[in-house]
Amino acid sequence: MKLIVVAVGMRMPNWVETAWDEYARRLPSDCALELKEVKPEPRTSGKTAAQMMQAEARRIEAAIPPQAMRIALDEHGKDMDTMGLARQLEGWRGSGQDIAFLVGGPDGLDAALKQSCNGRLRLSSLTLPHPMVRVVLAEQLYRAWAIMTGHPYHRA
């Protein structure tokens, strides 16, 4: 199983890349974490937010592996604690499918794209900056794996 994060936004600060690389490195190859960055639509194009999200959705779609299960990160998604994420990760792992986590741009994800997803996940009730979302998601996926496998990183 691969965990693929498809995120709108490129050229993140060094601290984001460093943190991402650290958690991606820690995960084993049978639960590999991969990042696919998608170019954001220019906010100076005169397009509406809906038009920009549609353009970004086309790029996101192109980056998702064909048979991957899609999980949209969304403020209205399922609120899950870390233990719940570990149980969910174990279920996904049992399915044998790759999992694609979709992270939208400044305006979020296109409504039709969200509808095409197998599920929606909310990382926090707080508003997180997009670079932070990548780091929090990577850390929580690593922590869920640690719980699932009995690794000492997570001490309950």
| Secondary-structure-derived class | alpha/beta
What is the tally of helical segments?
5
Low-confidence stretches: none
Q: So what's the overall shape?
A: globular
Share in β-strands: 15-25%
**Would you report the number of β strands?**
5
Helix content: 40-55%
Note the main attributes of this structure.
156 residues, alpha/beta, five-stranded parallel sheet, 5 helices, 5 strands, globular
Question: What does this 3D model show about the protein?
Answer:
The protein has helices at residues 14-26, 49-63, 82-95, 111-115, 130-149, and strands at 2-8, 32-38, 69-79, 99-103, 119-122. It is α/β, with parallel strands linked by helices and 156 residues long. 43% of the residues lie in helices and 22% in strands. Strands 2-1-4-3-5 form a five-stranded parallel beta sheet. Helix 1 (14-26) packs parallel to helix 5 (130-149) and helix 3 crosses helix 5 (130-149). The chain contains five helices and five strands; from the N terminus they run βαβαβαβαβα. The longest helix has 20 residues, at 130-149.
SSE blueprint and pairings:
Layout: E1 2-8, H1 14-26, E2 32-38, H2 49-63, E3 69-79, H3 82-95, E4 99-103, H4 111-115, E5 119-122, H5 130-149
Helix pairs in contact: 1-5, 3-5
Can you give me a brief rundown of this structure?
By secondary structure, this protein is α/β, with parallel strands linked by helices. The protein contains 5 helices and 5 strands, in the order βαβαβαβαβα.
